[in-house]
Amino acid sequence: xxxxxxxxxxxxxxxxxxxxxxxxxxxxxxxxxxxxxxxxxxxxxxxxxxxxxxxxxxxxxxxxxxxxxxxxxxxxxxxxxxxxxxxxxxxxxxxxxxxxxxxxxxxxxxxxxxxxxxxxxxxxxxxxxxxxxxxxxxxxxxxxxxxxxxxxxxxxxxxxxxxxxxxxxxxxxxxxxxxxxxxxxxxxxxxxxxxxxxxxxxxxxxxxxxxxxxxxxxxxxxxxxxxxxxxxxxxxxxxxxxxxxxxxxxxxxxxxxxxx
Amino acid sequence: xxxxxxxxxxxxxxxxxxxxxxxxxxxxxxxxxxxxxxxxxxxxxxxxxxxxxxxxxxxxxxxxxxxxxxxxxxxxxxxxxxxxxxxxxxxxxxxxxxxxxxxxxxxxxxxxxxxxxxxxxxxxxxxxxxxxxxxxxxxxxxxxxxxxxxxxxxxxxxxxxxxxxxxxxxxxxxxxxxxxxxxxxxxxxxxxxxxxxxxxxxxxxxxxxxxxxxxxxxxxxxxxxxxxxxxxxxxxxxxxxxxxxxxxxxxxxxxxxxxxxxxxxxxxxxxxxxxxxxxxxxxxxxxxxxxxxxxxxxxxxxxxxxxxxxxxxxxxxxxxxxxxxxxxxxxxxxxxxxxxxxxxxxxxxxxxxxxxxxxxxxxxxxxxxxxxxxxxxxxxxxxxxxxxxxxxxxxxxxxxxxxxxx
Lengths: 260, 406
Prior knowledge:
heterodimer; A: 260 residues; outer membrane lipoprotein receptor (LolB), chain A; 4 helices; 13 strands; B: 406 residues; mainly beta; Porin; 1 helix; 5% helix; 51% strand; globular
């Protein structure tokens, strides 16, 4: 009898695990696993080139250097320093991402030597004239969205989870994002962005993934296409360096002033 | 004296070249980095000049290279000379060292020795509490161009905030428009006869201390300045030919100030306030504050539209030595967010006691990777006789600058 009860309970439990997981729970579980796999990098520095392309195919480049610090229990801290175009050289952006609530942002204007606090509430604003919005380039935290798993499918030969995520922060430019995440390494291969009217606005494709520290998969290319304007932006990341020993004090208003 | 100026420039260029040659070729990213800009500028004054000798237009050229070297330790050396040659105003033809600094980077403090520019403040229209550097007034009357200030500055970083101590061993006199220049008062200023309250004159040791910190959405700075006033009192005098002139006199002042900004959602609230003693007979309070709000993606485009509203007040009221003694300012900023970073800023400063108003429009656009075209319009409207801008009443200015950044 005891054996039967145990078997029965186990079966029930198993059934519960297998069937009671709603698409929302599954979506969240995937996002959490993805986040877990990205944890522990401590800090990195990298160079990036933003190539802006308009409908006529005219190109314009922005060169940025990025430093990012992982913060235990909260979102990342980062400094982005602009090198090109030359008239904005030395302009730098300090960003404290928060899991909940708005981020903290300061901008350094080198001609005036001025550090200016800016409101980060307008997350849908264009980042440096590119097709990336501020909300696309700041650190992605699990808590920033709610989730729903849609289906599993093959994308470019890789088995993927396809799930939707819905921004829970205010002033997002999106109603939803559809994410293609590969099941083996949890690399985000593609995101479709839907605007406030739920019309498809942009598609992000990430490629040329490289593994760092035998663990972290980072894309070298991020291509954002705006379907409504015909404009696109290609972000190319190079020269990733991890565990540089960066500290909290490298990410404050003072270090922003002397960021080069 | 242009010849000594040129001599000084030659000497400094030689000095910099020697440094560049002596050091080894670049070993890391920021070794011997050279950047900067060269700019051509045209100014047009549509109204006839009020005072004899003034020009209706002028052309000028400016050069500001920047040399930067970072050592393995993170310590660095920066040198930024500046030169302008102007056709309309010989006083505007000038040379300055904007920066010549060595920064020692330590674990929990930083020491900077040399010539620097330091900005304090939060508001957009009037930079009230900003006092470390002298205005380079011949450059532009917006007080955003500054002369390099020699100093020793040590910054301490603690959990409770940042503490900055500044010792400034040498004072820089304000630059003034010459007889040929527009945007000046009726009586020319003779800065060869400058007077100081302190017997140490420009060698008086000025001190400043500043505490700044961020408390969540609040950024705050508390500052104390003790030393030579950056703003001269203009005394009446006569030159050797008996013509009326103004003589700048620099007094010893104490200034206590606070500046803060506070983020509330899409709103940014700002305040600057100061209490100053030692300037003339008036001990006074002054403050300015307001808000900034940005509309993102207007008209379903990627354009941003920002609105700025600020109030400026000085308890000396009509005796104030600043033109914005009780004024309201509105600023509208359009950022197109295109590849050329096209931007426009319109401002309207309205005196609340008179009909005087000051309007400006600034627009800029990039061409290619390195060229930046900037246009500026400034207008002084309905200036009553008692207003500090009265002498500028016919100095509406149209200015175009084309700069090459390298």
